[in-house]
Amino acid sequence: RSYLDFIMVSYFMLEFNIQLPAIAAGQDFMNMQFVSGLLRRSGAFFLRRTFGSDKLYKLIFTLYTQVLLCTRDHPVEFFVEGTRSRTSKSLHPKLGLLSMIVEPYLNGLLPDILLFPISISYERTLEEDLFARELLGTPKPKESTSGLFKARSFLASSDYGSIFINFSTPISLHDMCQKWGISRVPHGLFPRDVFVFTKKERDMMTKLGYFVLEKINSETRVFPSTILATIMLQHQEGINKDELMRLAVWLKEETEIRGAQVDWREDALQDSLKLLSTCVETTPSGVVQIRTENHSIPGSSSVLMEEAMSLVLSPSDKHKVMEDGFVCLKLARYRNQLLHWFTPEAIFLLCIQSTSELTTAEMKRRFSVLCTALSREFVLPQIPVDELFVNTVQVLIDRGLILTSENGETLSITPHERQENVVTFVAHLVQPFVAGVWVMCQYLLSLHGGVQTLKSTFKGAQLLAAKFIHLGILNTYEPLSLDILKNAVASLNVAGLILQPELELEGRDRLVKVAHQEKLWKLTQEIGIVLFSGETGLSNVSLATSQIQAKI
Questions:
Q1: How far apart are CA 28 and CA 337, in angstroms?
Q2: Angle at 381 between CA 378 and CA 383, to 5 degrees
C-alpha cells in the first residue's frame, strides 16, 4: 500500500527482537545515493520489475533468493501483489517470487516453509496525492534521495491517522501440499538443477497466492475515514452532517456483519472529517460536500451518444473535469479499503436493482457477464462463477435483501424501504468500475477494428470518459482512472474479446486490436442495460450501440 510497508515491518521485528528480514525491493531504490547502500546493509536485495527474456538474470536471482532461504539466517520478505496498489484495492498475486520460495521445498532442500501473511492498514497513506495524479496520467516520479528528505515535511505538517499491522497465523507449505494432494517424491528421480514445476504444482501455486491474499484481506482494518469517504462518493451533491453521521453508523454495522474489523473510537467521525479535509468541506449550513467545482449531480443529460463521441473538449473543460476527478480518486482510495467485503453482493445487486425482479436464469447470466467484465478489477473468490452465484444468492437471502419464488425460478428485491436502500447503496459500490469497462468498450468499438497501441488506447478512453462526465452521461469521475481502464482491457483480453499480441511491438508499447467486434458490441449493450436502466441515459446508450452495430 505504501513505501512505508517494509519500514514498518522491519521496525516491529526490531522492537520484538526478531531477526530482521531480507527484503525483496524494487530496483528503483538501487539508484538512490547513500540510501541504496543503507537498504542493502539492512537486508534488502534488489530485483528488476520484469525479467523479460534474460534467463541468466532469472537463474542467478532465483539461486540467490533460495540460498537466503536455505541458510535460514534471515526470513525473506516479499510483496505477493508485486507493487504498491495505487487504488488501495487488492491486486491479483504475482507468482514469480512465490514460486522461487516454494521450489526448495518441492526439491527436497527444506522439510517445510512457513508463510506469514502480513496485513498493513493505513488510515491515510503518504502517497495519496501522488497516486491520484498517477491514475490521471501524471508520470511516476523517480525515487531519489532528495525526494526522501522532502517527504519529511509532509509527515511533519499533516495528520496521517493510525496504522495497523497484523501478523496472521503461519501457513505451513508442507501441510498445504498434503491438503491439496501435492507430492514432492517424483522430483527425487531427477537432478535438482533441472527442476521443472508440474501443471498440478503450478495450479497449486496460483491457489496458494490467492489463499495468502485472502488471509491478508481478512485482517485488513476498516477506518471511519473509509466509511465517510464511501458515503460521500454516493452523495456528490452534498449531505447534511447529521444524516452523514447516521449513515456512517449504519455502514459500520453493515461492514462488521460481513466480518470486517472497524477501528471505531470516540469522536471517530469528527476526526475523520479533519483527516479528509483536503477532499471534503462543511458549509456554514451544515452540509458536507466534496471539494469539487461542480456540486450538482452528473447523469441527467439527454445528449445523444453520437454527439458525445464527436465532442471536442476544450482544455479548460478537460482541466476542470480532471481536477474534480483528482479529488474523487483520492476519496475512492479510502472507500476501496472495504470493497472486498461487499464485492460479490454488489455485483449481484447491481444486476437486479434496476428491474427489482428477474428470472434466476437471466440473473445468473447477467452476474456471469459482470464477473467476466470485472475479472481483473477485483480479486473474486477462486471458485466457479456458478458456485459463486449460488453462494451470493444464499447470503443475500439470509440478510433479507432478496426473495426467491417458491419454485426458485425468479429472484426479487425485498419490498421494504430499508432493504431497498441497502440494495441501492451496495450496488453503487461497484458501479464506477462497471462504468469504466463500459467506457473502454465504447472506445474500442469506435476504432472500427483498427489497431492501436495500449498507451493511445488508455489516453483515448480516458478522454472519452472526460467527455461523458462533462456532458452528464456518467455520474462518477472514477472512469478517468487509468487503473480502471487498464483492468478493463485486461479483463476483455482474458475474455478473448481483444488481442494483445506479444510480438507486435511499437517500441515497448503493445498493440491492441478487437478480436470479436460483434461480441464486444453485445457486451457493451449488456453493461449499458445494467448501468443505465431506469435512468435517462438508457435510450441514448441503446441508440449509440445500434448505430455502431449498423456501421459494423
A1: 27
A2: 130
Cell of 283: 458549509
Q: Using CA atoms, how far apart are residues 442 and 436, in angstroms rounded to an integer? A: 10
Q: Which residue has the cell 443529460?
A: 301
Q: Are 114 and 173 in contact (CB under 8 A)?
A: yes
**Distance between CA 441 and CA 443 in Å, rounded?**
5
Kindly state the cell numbers that stand for 507.
517500441
Residues contacting 97, CB < 8 A, separation 6+: 24, 47, 65, 78, 80
pTM of this structure: 0.86
HSE-up (13 A, CA, CB side) for residue 87: 24
C-alpha cell at 179: 491438503
* Spatial contact of 491 and 527, defined as CB atoms under 8 Å apart: no
The C-alpha atoms of residue 326 and residue 274 are separated, in whole angstroms, by 19
The mean-pLDDT minimum among 157-171, 195-209, 359-373, 472-486 falls in 157-171
User: Under 8 Å CB-to-CB from 150, ≥6 apart: which residues?
Assistant: none
Q: Could you tell me which of 48, 117, 52, 107 has the C-alpha nearest to residue 79?
A: 117
For strands 76-77 and 114-115, give the pairing: unpaired
Report the distance separating Cα 430 and Cα 443, nearest Å: 20
271 pLDDT above the threshold of 90: no
Apex 48 CA angle, 44 and 53, nearest 5? 145
Q: What Rg, from alpha-carbon coordinates, does the chain have?
A: 24
Residues 6+ apart with CB under 8 A from 509: 453, 454, 455
Question: Which residues, in sequence order, are bridge partners of residue 413?
Answer: 402
Pairing status of strand 410-413 against strand 402-404:
antiparallel
Total residues found in the chain within this entry: 552
Q: Which three cell numbers stand for residue 288?
A: 458536507
Alpha-carbon distances, residue 104 vs 108, 112, 240, 509 (angstroms): 6, 9, 59, 36
Which pLDDT score is estimated for 29? 72
Distance CA 228, CA 426 (A): 14
**CA end-to-end span of the chain:** 43
Q: Looking at residue 503, what is its pLDDT? A: 40
User: What is the DSSP code string of 189-236?
Assistant: GS-GGG----HHHHHHHHHHHHHHHHHHHHTPEE-HHHHHHHHHHT-T
Task: Give the pLDDT confidence of 118-152 residue by residue, as tens digits.
Answer: 998 888 887 888 888 888 888 876 766 666 666 66
Chain centroid to Cα 8, Å, comes to 23
522 by Cβ neighbours in 10 Å (0-12 / 13-18 / 19+) ranks as middle
- Residue 17 amino acid letter: N
C-alpha distances (whole Å) from 47 to each of 51, 63, 75, 85, 282 are 9, 13, 17, 18, 46
